[in-house]
Specification:
Elements (H helix, E strand, L loop, with lengths): L2 E4 L15 E4 L18 E2 L11 E6 L3 E10 L3 E5 L12 E5 L5 E11 L2 E6 H11 L8 H8 L4
Parallel strand pairs: 3-8
Antiparallel strand pairs: 1-2, 4-5, 4-7, 5-6, 6-9, 7-8, 8-9
């Protein structure tokens, strides 16, 4: 682990205006090939223009549960909850949450975090990327390796 941040509250009460950050970065050996293809064969890409909204169709890939799809239940401050078919189990944390693009690709919008009450929850990809850039002292500068490394989550 090269850097990390996790301020996920421990308990069942979370304010919707509370900022949640939860990530880890790792250094890969030089001989490791990064792969941005989900087990379904769909390519996972980043698109900073995607804006999350309640009711939006979304899918999650978890190492334990595989792929499940549903809708965004609520968008909060840097995190969101999902419902209507999105499932998760212990061990799915860190898996990608994505929306389907018209071109058949999956656009990452979050990283699975935990379950809030009965609802699966994820930290926002954009908010996590911004927090990582700030933690690395890069401000708002784009960091290409962050997108590539995180795109392999769940493979």
């Amino acid at each position: 682990v090269t850097t990390s941040r996790d301020n996920t509250p421990n308990g069942t009460v979370v304010r919707t205006d509370q900022v949640i950050s939860d990530y880890e970065t790792i250094a890969l050996a030089a001989d490791v090939t990064i792969n941005s293809v989900l087990p379904s064969g769909r390519q996972l890409v980043a698109d900073p223009t995607v804006v999350l909204a309640a009711g939006q169709q979304v899918c999650h890939f978890g190492v334990i549960t595989g792929e499940s799809c549903g809708t965004i239940e609520r968008v909060n401050n840097g995190w969101f909850t999902m419902d209507n078919g999105v499932v998760s189990q212990k061990g799915d944390s860190g898996g990608p949450v994505y929306v389907m693009a018209d071109n058949g690709k999956a656009v990452i919008v979050g990283l699975f975090n935990s379950t809030w009450g009965r609802l699966p929850a994820a930290v926002s990809w954009q908010a996590t990327g911004q927090q990582l850039r700030e933690d690395a002292g890069l401000g708002g500068a784009a960091v290409k390796p962050v997108v590539n490394a995180a795109a392999s989550v769940g493979n």
